Each structure stands twice: as C-alpha cells, then as structure tokens.
Amino acid sequence: MLEVKSTIEHVAGFRVAGVHAGLKKNGKLDFAVVISDTPCTAAGVFTTNQVKAAPVILDMERLQSHAEKVRAVVVNTGCANACTGQQGIYKAQQTARWAAEKIGCDENAVLVLSTGVIGSQLNMYAVRQGIDIAMQFLGHEWFEAAKAIMTTDTRPKLASVTVAKKNGDRYQIAGISKGAGMIAPNMATMLGVIITDAQVPQPMLQRALKTASDQSYNRIVVDGDMSTNDTVLLLANGATNVVLDTPEEEADFTEALTALCKKLAQEIVRDGEGATKFITVNIQGAPDDAAARKIADAIATSPLVKTAFFGNDANWGRIVAAAGRSGVALNPELMQLWIAPGEADDQRGISLQLFAGGMPTDYSEETAAAIIKEKTVSILLDCGMGKGTSTVWTCDLSHDYVTINGDYRS
Amino acid sequence: MLEVKSTIEHVAGFRVAGVHAGLKKNGKLDFAVVISDTPCTAAGVFTTNQVKAAPVILDMERLQSHAEKVRAVVVNTGCANACTGQQGIYKAQQTARWAAEKIGCDENAVLVLSTGVIGSQLNMYAVRQGIDIAMQFLGHEWFEAAKAIMTTDTRPKLASVTVAKKNGDRYQIAGISKGAGMIAPNMATMLGVIITDAQVPQPMLQRALKTASDQSYNRIVVDGDMSTNDTVLLLANGATNVVLDTPEEEADFTEALTALCKKLAQEIVRDGEGATKFITVNIQGAPDDAAARKIADAIATSPLVKTAFFGNDANWGRIVAAAGRSGVALNPELMQLWIAPGEADDQRGISLQLFAGGMPTDYSEETAAAIIKEKTVSILLDCGMGKGTSTVWTCDLSHDYVTINGDYRS
User: Fold this and answer.
1) How many angstroms separate the CA atoms of B320 and B304, rounded?
2) Contact at 8 Å (CB) between A72 and A42?
3) Are the beta carbons of A307 and A396 closer than 8 angstroms?
4) Candidates A120, A301, A321; nearest CB to B228
5) How many domains does chain B have?
6) CA separation, residue B1 to residues A225, B172, B196 (Å)
7) Contacting residues of B for A277, CB less than 8 Å apart
8) pLDDT value of position B57
9) Do B169 and B43 sit in the same domain of this protein?
10) pLDDT tens digits, one per residue of B185-197
11) Chain A residues touching residue B50 (CB < 8 angstroms)
C-alpha cells in the first residue's frame, strides 16, 4: 500500500534551498534551487499555450539534447519571463549559466523555471543574488524550497512516497508544486519539480511523467485559464543505486509517481485562489472518454456552477445546463445527476439523486442543502449513452478569487 | 442615418403589458405579453444548448408549422421551465392555450418564453393570474413590459428604430431584451422579443434575424455560460401596410434590425451581472475569421483578463496568454497589442501599444493605468498572420458577479 506523505525528508543525492533574492517585496522567499550531486536523467511536461515563456522554450530544448545529464533546476517567482522576446531567452540562459558556474557543471545541465507577472523583464541583479545566497544554504529544507516557489498559494505543497522493489530495495519519489490560479485542464498546468533517487532510464521517466500528469495535473481546474509557464520536471539521480528496468518496475514507479502527482495536483485545487470547496466532478455514461472529459471540463469551468457552490446553493440546473453546452450531443431524458458529500471514493454511502428522466427527482431540498454546505463535495453525472467516463477536480469561485486577481500586480 | 432610440413609442397593431403574476417575491413585475391585433409572420433564433427548456422546444416546433400566423408572445420570469420533462412541455402548452383563449386565436399562434431557475416546475396558478391581469392592462407601456422580463438585470432594455423606404413610406422596428448573466457567444444568447409593423415575408424575416443575431447577440460575453432558454423572436404584423419585398428593402431592413439588436446586445453587456466596465475585444491579422473569433472568445471569457479589468490593472500579459490558449496556432513574435479608451469606433485617437515583436513596448505604465481606469475600454490584438478579424463585447468580473450568482435562488 502506497503512503504519500505531505513532507519530504532527505532524498539521497539531492540538496535544495529556498531564499529571498529580492524579486518579491517584504523579504518573502522568492527563489529556489534543486541540485543533484550527480547527473540525472530528466523528463518534462510543458504548457500547450502557444505563447511560451522563455524558460519553457529553454527547458524544452535542453531536454531534447541534454536529458541524460541534468544537474539542477533554478526557480524564480515574481516574474514569469514570458512575452519578453529574445532578451527573455538571454536572461533564462544567463540564470542557468550563473548556477552552472557555482555548481561546476555544463550550463546545459541546468533547467530554469519562472512564475509571476507576464510581460515584465527579469531583474537579473536579484537572480544573481538568489543564486549566490541559495548556494550558501543548500541542504534538505524542502519546506523552504516549496515556500520559495509559491505565488498566490497560501501554503507550500510537498509530497513524498517510498517505493519498495520486490527484492526489498527501496527508493523515494518526492516533489514540490505551486499553483493557485490559471489552472486549466491541459498538458501540464503549474510548476512542479519532482525528484527520485532511483536510477531510471530517460524514456521510462518521460513515459511515467506523461501518464502521471494525465491522471493528475491535467485533471484540475481553478479558473480555466492556462499559463505561459506551466512545467513539471522530473529528475532521477540514481543515488540509491536502485535501478528500474523491467516493465513491472516501470509500472510500480508510474503508479507511485501518479499517486504523488495526484496528491500535489489536488493540493493545488484545495488551495485554489479564493477556494472554499473541493469539488470532484465525475462523468459516466458518455459516448466515450473524450466526450466525458469535455462535459467534465464544461461543468468544472462554469462560473455559474462555481459561484453556486460558493453560495452553498444546490442550484443543480446549472450543472445540467453546463453539460448541455459542452459540445457533446446529449439527451436530457437519459441524464441522471447525483451529489454526495466527500470525495468520490469516500462518499460514506450518502448520495442524493437530483435529476432523472428529464426532470427533478422528488429529492429533499434540505438534504441537498446539507450536502452542498460541506467543504468537500462530489458530483456524478450519468449521461446514459455509453461507457465514457472522466473525473476532474475543481473548486468554487469566490469573492477572494476576484480580489486576488483584480489586485495581482500591485 | 439610422437613429436607434432607447425607448419604444406606439408600434402600430401591437399591444403589450408587464404585470406581477406572483412568480417573484416582493410584488415585482414578473410576467409580460406582447400581442398583435392581426396575425404576424414570425422568426426565431434559439439556444444551441443540448438541454433546451420546454418553451424553446415548443416555439421551435411552432415556428416550423405556424410561422405565418403568430399572434402573441407570453413571457414569464422566476422559472426557466427547463429540466422539467413532459410536465414542463404540458405547462408551456397550457400557458399558450390560456393566452389564446383570451385573445381568441389558435393556441399554436402563441409563443412562450421563460427565464429563471432551472429545474423547478412552473407555478401555473401564477401563470393563469399573469395572463388574466395582463389582458386587462394591454396598451403601449413597453417600458413596463421590458421591466417584467428582467431577471438579475438592473434596468430594462428597450430599443426602436424608424426606417424610411425610398418612396417615403415609414415603418418601425422595436424590441425588448433581458440578459445579465449566462451570456455566451453562441447562436441566440438571451431573451428578446422584436416586432415590426412592416409586412415582411417569413423567409426574409428569418434571414434578417439570423444575420442580425450573428452581428449582435452572438458577439457578447458575460460569463461564457450558455442558457437552456436563450431565444430571440421577431414578429412582423404589417399594420402599416408597408410591404418589404425587394432585395434592397431586405438589405435596409436587415441593416436596421442589426443596429437595433446591436444596441440591445451591448446593453446586456453594459448591464452584465456585476459589470463595471464595457470592453470591446478586436482581433485582426488572424489566419481567418473563425480563428479570430476563437481568440476573441478566449480573451473575452478569461477570468484572469476580466478580474484584471475589474481591478484597473493593465496586466496585458493575461490577454496575450489567453490568446495563446485559444487553440489557434500563433506566433508571439508577430503579435501586437494595443489598448484604447472608449469603444472601438470612438477611440479619440488615443491608442497605446503594449506588446510587439514578442516583448513589451516602451509604453508608459501611467498612460496604461489611465486607460484601464475608464468605464469603456477597447483592446486590439493583431496576430500578424492573415486577414481574419472579429469583434466581441464583454465586461469585467467583479465581486458583485460572485454575490449575485452565489445567492441566486434565495
């Protein structure tokens, strides 16, 4: 049984630091480095936004040519280094170069992540300072590193899991993420740095990350926007000498990585900008899985559904209406809708049917109100057409979301 | 020169009433009828939501079979009569039947519109009462009728225009609309009843309404959701004996109808739920018009763009990022972005370029802040790729939007 913890202890061969470089006001942590003592195989998943930030362009290139010998990831907040032209690319390269000089490695062995305001140029004086300070504080303070990559997050997001091979050998996978806003259901949707002390061939690493992301980061919605910077990087340094080789070992690694990413992704939704509720949207009976996903996304991004949840209003007609505009051909007569407290796999047997045969059931408005008031709520919509299923996690839309995003740059 | 007024005087052969039927609390107007003394040709555009309200299903059928002899439109608020199954259909039919009895016409000559909460059954006692009272107060109080179809609108929406034919004959087109939330850019996006005292062949009427809707109601965004009930109906009773016949007359009619619909549609955005700003999104240089429209919609529905406007924050990177996730292949290096105060066709020569060649221009943050503070702002994004253009009107996303929609049913 995999136990995914919300902490990270020592992971063999990795050192980290989270420091204040001067990119954020008030002395907040704003700069992090993750360094491996030895070269890592590395994999990445990136935003599908057509407007890609400079560090995304840089990392994509480096994973083409240098994915077998990555040594470090440098993360700055306060500035996305997106929409910054050739100057932005130079600055991402310079960031990597400075870190490489300190580490004593090839500059191509350093990857860079940025998050913050789009369209402003990176303050390289602060970056230089961040690298210098971080290198002095390298250690195992993962909590500090996770804090240093936050933007509007209210809490750091960490997770780790220990996996035992058949022969008793053990290795760890650990990761930090930041999210909060601009989280859309699409390939890679926030920043994440994941590491393992197992030795994993690069192609296996990339396959595992793709699978895990599809089941986790790509299933979360905060506001439906998608960032220019979304990236998840996965580094394997083999410091434990545990080698992953067989299909069975790959399956176990992928399973553990997926569980870890799921925990981090769900943490992003729970800590969504202004979020007061964690909502699981389950679709079944759709024509196929892709259609189910379309319906789930329409519901999960609907401002009317999200504000109704915020208002503790079991206004389920908005859920059906959102499904109806998803672009999937549906027959309302065949649809059935339930709500339940808790997460989909923890509904304590309580589930209330609201809609069937094209009309409301004879449900108790009181029970519906009691369920919708919970902090964790699940929806199940059965389309009554086929075998397509999908699950997406989302949050509500609150006053605080508007406050946070109306005031982001000031 | 067409002058579209915000009032409706007497339109020959039409009588209206807006009354309190008991569907809303506090004695508010909640029920309206529009009646023609003689049979009308009629046209309609309807929601493309797969979940259609009972009155939408009824009206679509009646416009198939009885579009040459429509006598009346009955509108109730407080209940959408959507997700109400066969019972909902019966109730929509019964509403029409009762009105027809009072008017003394075939029940198929009456169309029905509903708006309000989805998934609750219509209170037929109130509907009966609404019809009885309304028939006693028939007259030319269009302002009352426009008020009686409001939901979360803060003000009634009326418009009228007088058109002169070459020979000097004059006819009127007039309309009322309601909107406020759930306004997405798609075929028909709210309730509207439009009338004319010209005599217009039914096919011409349908063509003109389609064209006018595409240029008006289908170009507005409040929250990106799409209702189960959206309908615009157009009735022509020929009471003036002005006959529209020639292609030239059709063109003039379509032009006037488009101007009228544009005014009503823009009024819906100006009065969007919680809206504090009217934003015109102009796209040019897209691969084609459809691509331009996709980009415009992505920007106009982006919660991050809309909250930035609410916060008077010229955070233009979010506009570029929204374009980047629209699904259209774009090259940021070719993109250029401007903002300007006022409407697109009224920018007083002031236009500030923010982004070009993949990076920010050397613009004045002070000027940008001054523009974004205006109540009416325009964006122009040139993709630098082709000849595709699109214009969409939207509003910002405010605290009041969340309050209104978190609290809608109570």
Assistant:
1) 11
2) no
3) yes
4) A321
5) 2
6) 42, 14, 19
7) none
8) 96
9) yes
10) 443 348 999 999 9
11) 323-326, 328-332
Q: Judge whether B250 is closer than 8 Å to chain A, CB to CB.
A: no
3-state SS class at A393 = strand
Cα angle A333-A339-A341, degrees, rounded to a multiple of 5: 170
Q: Residue A158 domain-assigned?
A: yes
Kindly determine whether residue B325 and residue A357, on different chains, have CB atoms separated by under 8 Å: no
What gap in Å lies between CA B174 and CA B158, rounded to an integer? 8
Helices (H) and strands (E) in chain B, counts: 11, 15
What is the domain-level CATH number for residue A312? 3.10.20.340
| Contact: B359, A88; criterion CB under 8 Å | yes
One domain for residues A260 and A309: no
pLDDT at res. B268? 87
Contact (CB<8Å) A118/B321:
yes
What are the E-state strand segments in A238-387? 278-286, 336-341, 352-356, 359-360, 376-382
pLDDT at A223: 62
Type of residue numbered A31: F
At B308 the pLDDT is 87
Is residue B190 a part of any domain in this protein? yes
Q: Is residue A180 part of a domain?
A: yes
Nearest to A196 by CA among A217, A175, A165, A169: A175
Cβ contacts of B330 on chain A, cutoff 8 Å: 50-51
Same domain, residue pair B181 and B140: yes
Could you say which of B270, B305, B332 is where a domain stops? B270
B199 within a domain of the structure (yes/no): yes
Residue B41 — pLDDT band, cuts 50, 70, 90?
Answer: very high
Q: Are residues A203 and A254 in the same domain?
A: yes
Chain segment A224-237, per-residue pLDDT in tens: 667 788 899 999 99
Give B320's contacts in chain A (Cβ within 8 Å): 51, 83, 118-119, 228
Report the range of poorest mean pLDDT among A90-94, A266-270, A352-356, B113-117.
Answer: A266-270
Domain closes at, from B270, B304, B320: B270
Q: Which domain holds residue B266?
A: 14-270
- CA-based nearest residue in chain B for residue A410: B313
Which candidate from B323, B402, B409 shows the least CB-CB separation from A402? Answer: B402
**Residue A189 annotated among the catalytic residues of the structure:** yes
Q: List residues of B with catalytic annotation.
A: 189
Q: 0.90 cut: is pTM over it?
A: no
Distance CA A175, CA A194 (A): 4
Closest residue to B313, CB basis, from A325, A401, A408: A408
Q: Are A237 and A202 in contact (CB under 8 A)?
A: no
Partnered with residue A280 across adjacent β-strands are A378, A393
Chain A residues with CB under 8 Å of B92 CB are none
> How far apart are alpha carbons B41 and B71 in whole angstroms?
9
Q: Is A333 at the interface with chain B, CB within 8 A?
A: yes
